[in-house]
Design brief:
Blueprint: H1 4-22, E1 32-37, E2 46-55, E3 61-68, E4 71-77, E5 84-92, E6 100-107, E7 112-119, E8 134-143, E9 146-147, E10 156-160, E11 163-165, E12 169-171, E13 177-184, H2 192-206, E14 212-219, E15 223-230, H3 233-242, H4 251-262, E16 268-275, H5 286-294, E17 299-305, H6 320-336, E18 340-344, H7 350-362, E19 365-370, E20 380-387, E21 393-395, E22 399-401
Parallel strand pairs: 13-14, 13-16, 16-17, 17-18
Antiparallel strand pairs: 1-2, 2-5, 3-4, 3-6, 6-7, 8-9, 8-19, 8-21, 10-11, 10-20, 12-19, 14-15, 20-22
Length: about 400
């Protein structure tokens, strides 16, 4: 007769083996937490974003703490599944010392699962006086024309007059945006083209998010519409559908008016314009508009319609050839703003272009640095942004006036 004790041992061994095969006793996978921002040696002053990446295959993490110099700066719960990126905002006191920024991941029972840390750069001698000018930049990163997302501050290099600048603020997605939509309603757009414009503009307004405010203006040789920012879509749509046709095209004047309106906004700013022809009625010259574009941090998107080359119109201020040169100069200015020029050959292309502009705006990166060499001498400072991934294109404004 078999020994009962031996039988029980065999049975236990078999059960353990079966449970192990089924994964019941599988060792939990390790949890990793990474502090992506702020980056090492980044200058951090006051409120600054903290970007955390959590790799938690078994979703064991319940919350994450962010600490500044050992003191709790923020604490937030993680969602399920837990792996992914989490954004926080921390307040860092400006000082001449380096700060230790740490992130710690905890389980439901309070067990510390993972930790990561970095050290910020100290302020230079003279303290905040070296950082009184914050230079904000919005960068569009594309590969083969498609937006590239998921980059961090460490992927970017910002240069002013060729000199690298420490990135003080970074956001991978810009939340708040103020948009001015401007439609050409001159005589040449009347009828079916105007209806296409109106429908495209309505679709753009309907696609706006709650944190995206807009103003609508229609222009010919005069401007009308809703010259104030609102989140009330009905007001904007009613103004769009009420726009009538008439008058000539004054594109320079329209751009200047739109930028003046955007000046009142503190959020990211974008001017979206549609026109079907050559400027023939603007009082303002391209030189005057250039100054206005360079003094603004707004992005300009111009959509031009027309299959045929533009005819050189003359007006009271410029002859036809001068007006053609104005258009060429205006196109260069749009590139300098960090925006983009679109040319379409059919009006049914307008709505997809407007939607593409919204998609691009929502995938842009916000970067800012403190200008350590501010002279307040009115000089022009050239800017350049580079991104680490190969094969990408980066657009941003060409520079700023040191004032």
């Amino acid at each position: 007769m078999a020994d009962p004790g031996w039988s029980r041992s065999c049975l236990v061994a078999l059960l353990v083996s079966a449970a192990a095969a089924a994964g019941a006793f599988e060792t939990p996978k390790s949890v990793q937490v990474t502090l992506l921002e702020p980056t090492y040696d980044q200058v951090v002053i006051s409120l600054t974003p903290a970007l955390v990446e959590l790799d938690d295959p078994d979703s064991r993490c319940a919350w994450i703490d962010v600490l500044v110099d050992g003191a709790l700066a923020d604490s937030f719960a993680v969602h399920q599944p837990a792996s992914g990126r989490y954004e926080s905002e921390i307040d860092v006191v400006a000082s001449g010392e380096r700060h230790l920024i740490a992130v710690q991941a905890y389980g439901e029972d309070g067990e510390l699962l993972a930790r990561d840390e970095t050290r910020t750069a100290p302020l230079p001698p003279g303290g905040l006086t070296a950082f009184v000018t914050l230079v904000p930049l919005y960068a569009t990163v594309t590969r083969n024309g498609e937006p590239v997302t998921g980059l961090t501050a460490s992927d970017f290099t910002v240069r002013e007059e060729g000199r690298p600048q420490p990135i003080a603020h970074f956001e991978s997605s810009v939340r708040s945006t103020s948009i001015v939509v401007m439609l050409d309603h001159s005589f040449s757009v009347q009828g079916e083209p105007l209806r296409h414009c109106q429908q495209a503009a309505v679709s753009l307004i309907e696609a706006l998010r709650e944190d995206e405010r807009a103003a609508f203006l229609s222009f010919s040789n005069r401007v009308s519409g809703v010259p104030s920012f609102t989140t009330d879509r009905a007001i904007l749509i009613d103004a769009i559908r009420s726009a009538g046709s008439g008058g000539g095209t004054a594109l320079n004047d329209a751009i200047y008016t739109g930028l003046e309106l955007l000046d009142s906004q503190s959020a990211r700013k974008a001017l979206i314009l549609f026109s079907d022809g050559l400027d023939a009625h603007s009082v303002l010259s391209a030189d005057y508009v250039r100054w206005r574009v360079q003094a603004s941090d707004a992005l300009i998107y111009l959509v031009l319609f027309g299959r045929e080359p533009a005819r050189p119109y003359s007006n009271n201020w410029r002859d036809g050839e001068a007006n053609l040169r104005q258009l060429s100069e205006l196109e260069a200015l749009i590139q300098e703003s960090g925006g983009r020029l679109f040319r379409i050959e059919a009006m049914d292309q307008l709505e997809p272009v407007f939607q593409a502009i919204l998609t691009e705006l929502r995938s842009q990166y916000y970067l800012a640095y403190y200008d350590q060499d501010a002279q307040r001498d009115g000089s022009w400072r050239r800017l350049q942004i580079e991104a680490a991934p190969g094969g990408v294109s980066v657009r941003t404004r060409a520079g700023f006036w040191d004032r």
